[in-house]
Amino acid sequence: MNIRVYDEIYGEALLTVEEMAAAGGDSFDAADRVPGAAGRAFDVKTWHRNWSAARLAGQDREPVRLQVEAADEFQASIPWGELDKALLLYAQADGSPLVKGHPLRLYVPGGSSECLNVKSVVALRLLYDESVREQEATYGFKNTVSLDELKRKPQSLANIN
Question: Model-level pTM?
Answer without folding.
Answer: 0.84
